[in-house]
Design brief:
This protein is mostly helical. Helix content is 88%, strand content 0%.
Length: 180
């Protein structure tokens, strides 16, 4: 099919070359392309500006400006926030490891794991409330201690849940060995 078309074009090349488009036709095509490109460009610029404005408004609403304090207070606050973040990262990693271990057992005990998840979700929700309260509280130290206690409790509960599942697994193995 392709060869026939190429042969036809080669044989009738002079006929194709004898007809030329009007000189204004290329100008019309170019004008239309420019209009399409400028519309696209205007749309993209508008969309980008809208996104930037939306992000700016969100940042402005979520992080209201704080009154300026002296440098030593700011340095202390930054160090405290860094320590809080490090503590949170540590416990989050530990909780993540425990949850991964727990998920391995949950394949065989899905009903029990649903109960575990409910307990864990309640603690997680409480931690979120404490975290919000921390930013508003005048006594940040008390709230911070409660946040750390919550994280420790989450790790402890996950460890206990793992222990329960391990005990169940051991009992199942013993029963299986007795039956064999």
């Amino acid at each position: 099919m392709k060869d026939k078309l190429e042969d036809f074009i080669r044989q009738h090349r002079k006929e194709f070359d004898s007809h030329e488009p009007r000189s204004r036709m290329w100008d019309n095509i170019n004008d239309k392309l420019q209009k399409k490109n400028s519309r696209k460009r205007w749309f993209l610029i508008s969309a980008a500006a809208s996104v930037i404005m939306a992000v700016g408004v969100c940042v402005w609403l979520l992080y209201p400006s704080k009154p300026k304090s002296n440098d030593s207070e700011t340095a202390i606050e930054n160090e405290i926030n860094l320590n809080i973040n490090n503590t949170e990262v540590y416990y989050s990693a530990l909780i993540g490891e425990k949850r991964n271990e727990l998920n391995q057992y949950c394949k065989n005990q899905p009903d029990l794991c649903k109960e575990f998840d409910q307990d864990f979700d309640e603690l997680n929700i409480m931690y979120g409330h404490l975290k919000m309260e921390y930013s508003k509280s005048p006594d940040k130290e008390v709230v911070l201690k409660a946040m750390i206690e919550n994280l420790k409790t989450q790790v402890e509960i996950l460890s206990r849940q793992l222990q329960v599942l391990e005990n169940i697994k051991e009992k199942e193995k013993k029963l299986k060995n007795k039956n064999v």
